[in-house]
Amino acid sequence: MLHRLTHVLSCREAARLVSEAQDRPLTVTERVKLRLHLFVCSGCSRFARQIEFLRDAVARFRT
Amino acid sequence: MDAAQFADELDQNRRYLLRVARLQLRDADLAEDVVQDTLLAALGAREGFTGRSSVKTWLTGILKHKIVDAIRRKQRQPVVAASFDEETDLDDFDPLFKDNGAWQAPPADWGDPENALSQQEFMGVMELCLDRLPPNTARVFVMREVLELETDEICKELRITPNNLWVILYRARMALRQCIEQNWFSGPRT
Question: What's chain A's average pLDDT?
C-alpha cells in the first residue's frame, strides 16, 4: 500500500518539486503528493534535506 | 567607526565582493569594474551605513544593484540569449533518473552536514562547485541564492519565463548537490 504512494509522484518529479518549493509556493495538491512521496522514499527525503542544506551553505558563503 | 576604519573594512571585503561578482558575471574585467563601482558608492554613501547590518551585508546589497545594472547593459548583446537557450533546453534528458523516474543512484547519506559549514575547506569546495556550473546557470543561481533576488525580478532582468527559471535553478541545485557529494561527502571523513 505504502509503495503505491511513491507512484503518485516519481522521484524525478519529487526532486523538481523540492527545488521549486524554494522558488514558488507549491499548490496544495503538489504539497500533499510531495509529502506523501517523501514519507515513503528515503532517497528523496535525503535529497530534500540536502537541498535545504545547500541553501544554508550558500547563505554562509554570503555572510 | 571612523573614516580610516571604514576604508579598512571596505578593503577587507574586496576579495569577497570580487568572488561573488566573478561568479555572477563570468567576466573578470567587468567584475573588477563592478566591485570598484560598489566600493566607490559605499565610500560616498557612508552615512547610509547604519551599523544595523554587517558591512559585508551592506556591501552585498550595493553590489547586487551594480550587478543588475551591468547585466542590463550586457543583456543588449544577443549572444547571451543564444547560450541561454542552449543551457536551458527543457527537453534535455536528465541522466540522474531512470526512464521510470526513479533515481539512477539515490542521494548518499551526508551524515550531519552542518558540521561542514564551519570548515573553511568546505567553503572552498562550494566555490569550486559553483565555478563548475555552466556560466548562465551559475549567474542565475547566484542571483537567486547569493544576491537573494526575487524570482520575478530575475525573470524580468533576464527576460525568461518563470518555468525556465525554475528549471535552471533545479539544474543548478542538482549539479551543485552532486559536485558537493562527490568532493566532500563521499570520501572517508571524520
Answer: 87
d(CA B132, CA A18): 22
**B178: pLDDT strictly greater than 50:** yes
β-bridge partners, A7:
none
Question: Is there a contact between B108 and B185 (Cβ–Cβ < 8 Å)?
Answer: yes
Q: Is A50 on the interface with B (CB under 8 A)?
A: yes
Interface confidence, given as ipTM, is 0.90
Report CB contact under 8 Å: B113, A50.
yes
Phi then psi for residue B131, to 5 deg, are: -65, -30
Q: Are B14 and B39 in contact (CB under 8 A)?
A: yes
The structure's pTM equals 0.75
At B111, phi and psi to the nearest 5?
65, -130
The nearest CA of chain B is from the CA of A57 a distance in Å of 6
* B-chain residues near A62 (CB < 8 A): 20, 60, 146, 148
Indicate if the alpha-carbon torsion angle B128, A61, B188, B109 is positive or negative. Answer: negative
Q: Looking at residue B10, what is its pLDDT?
A: 84
Q: How far is CA B16 from CA A31, A62, B33, B83, in A?
A: 37, 9, 14, 27
CA distance B14 to B20: 10
